[in-house]
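Example noted here:
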Amino acid sequence: MLRPTMAAPRPTAAAPSGPETQATAAFRRLRAEILQGRLAPGARLKVLDLAARYAIGPAPLREALSQLAAEGLARRIEQRGFRVADADPADFTGLIRTRCLVEPLALREAVQCGDAAWEDGIAGAERRLARLPRSLERLRYVPNPAWEAAHLAFHRALIAACGAPPLIAFCERLREEADRYRALAGPLGYPSRDVAAEHAAIAAAALDRDAPRAAELLTQHLATTGDFVRQALDGVAATLGHGRRRMTHADHDADR
C-alpha cells in the first residue's frame, strides 16, 4: 500500500543539468507518471531503459527510484531492481477512510481560522469550477483538464486557512494517492450525481461558518467519489491481476 508522507514534491517536467538535479527531475517525472496511472501497478522500472528515455545516467535514475521506494510509490525487488507499487482496490478503502477523517478536520479548522481572503478564495474557486463542464463532450464522458484543475483549486481553497501546513501537505498527499486510483479506474462520469451542487453546498456551509455542516458535506462528497472509484476498480481488478501475473512470469523467464 502507498505510504502517506507529510510532504509531497510537485511533479515537473524540467530536467536541469547536474547529477543531483537530474535525479530530482527524474524522481518528479516518474512520480507524476505513477500517480497519473501512466506507469501501471507492478510494472518493472528498468534502469537503463528509463535512463535512456530521460536522457540521464543510470546513477541519478537509481537515486530517483530509491526516493520513489522510500515514498512507497515503487518497490525494490532484491537482486531484480524496482517495480511500480501495487494498487490493491482493498487498500483504496483505507485511503478514502483516512481522507474522510483528515480533510474534514482541516476544513473545520479553516472555518474557525479563515479570514476574508479565505472566503474570497472559496467563493471565487467555486464560481470558476461551476462555469466549467466536467466533460469535454455531451454524449459521452471525456475528462476536461480545465475542470480538473479548477476542482483541485477548489479543494485546496477550502482548507487553505487551517493554519497547519503539515496537515495541508498530508491532505495533498492523500489526494494524490486517491487520484492515482481514480486514474487506474478509468474515466468516471458519475451518472445521476450532481457534483456541482455538492461543491456549492460545501462552499455555502463553509462561508456560513457552519463547520460541522461543512465537514459533514465534505465527508459525504469524498465518500461518494470513493464509492464510484471503488466500483470501477472492482471491474478492472481481475484484468490488472492477470496482467501482473503474466508480467511476473515473463520477467522471471527473462531473468534466468
The CA atoms of residues 41 and 86 lie 5 Å apart.
